[in-house]
Amino acid sequence: MKKENIKIKTKLNINKTKVGKTSLIMSLVSEEFPDEVPLRAEEITIPADVTPERVPTHIVDYSEAEQSDEQLYQEISKANVICIVYSVNNKKSIEKVSLLLNVLILLSGHRVPLILVGNKSDLVEHSSMETILPIMNQYSEIETCVECSAKNLKNISELFYYAQKAVLHPTGPLYSPEEKE
Ligand code: GTP
Ligand code: MG
């Protein structure tokens, strides 16, 4: 694939469970956890020379409070990869992952790799993987899943690396017979 700007989009919760999308972006950029964050992070392009895959990476946050559905659809249709964030300490946000997946796959109109991101790992002792893996196995669009914490900076750079990798070296099928016609 051509090494052009990669667009990473964060999309989350339908009913504002504050899973930490904005905090994840700000933690990546400033390398520290921000005590206060705006509803939506400003769009930012990480220069190629500081990314592991050496490709400029454009990160787009999503805020249900600040953006219309129409804006969301437009961003989804432009994205090269979408990170779906849930909060590992919030069962409801985990349950919503399947619903979001269906919506995103329907809306994207093209095959876009998805990353499942379980944030706030600092708040729990147990992993959410047991719940997430069966979901992951149902959707070939999901490239990988990762648990992380914006607060203690755990797996933050890894998360963005996985997103880059999903675009540059996708493991999913390039051709799906069902998509024909
Ligand atoms: P909306 O934009 O309203 O949809 O929320 P969001 O998904 O952008 O979440 P945001 O980054 O605003 O974080 C919501 C709350 O969770 C804030 O109080 C953050 O400080 C907190 N938070 C975010 N990430 C973490 C984390 O990794 N651990 C803990 N303990 N708290 C976090
Ligand atoms: Mg936000």
Describe this structure in words.
The protein is α/β, with parallel strands linked by helices. The chain has five helices and six strands, in the order βαββαβαβαβα. The chain has a six-stranded mixed β-sheet with strand order 2-3-1-4-5-6, sandwiched between helices. Strand 4 (81-87), helix 3 and strand 5 form a beta-alpha-beta unit. It is globular. The protein binds guanosine-5'-triphosphate and magnesium ion. Guanosine-5'-triphosphate binds at residues 12, 16, 18-23, 37, 39, 63-64, 119-120, 122-123, 149-151.
Keywords:
5 helices; 6-stranded mixed beta sheet; 34% helix; 181 residues; binds guanosine-5'-triphosphate; binds magnesium ion; alpha/beta
The order of strands across the largest sheet is 2-3-1-4-5-6
Q: How much of the sequence is in beta strands?
A: 15-25%
Distance between the termini: 23 Å
Cα Rg = 15 Å
Number of helices: 5
SSE pattern: EHEEHEHEHEH
For the sheet with most strands, the description reads:
6 strands, mixed
**Category by helix and strand content:** alpha/beta
Number of strands: 6
* Helicity range: 25-40%
Outline: globular
Give the mean pLDDT. Answer: 87
Poorly predicted spans: none
| Ligands present | guanosine-5'-triphosphate, magnesium ion
Subcellular location: Mitochondrion outer membrane
Organism: Cyprinus carpio carpio
Family: Belongs to the mitochondrial Rho GTPase family.
Function: Atypical mitochondrial nucleoside-triphosphatase (NTPase) involved in mitochondrial trafficking. Probably involved in control of anterograde transport of mitochondria and their subcellular distribution. Can hydrolyze GTP, ATP and UTP.
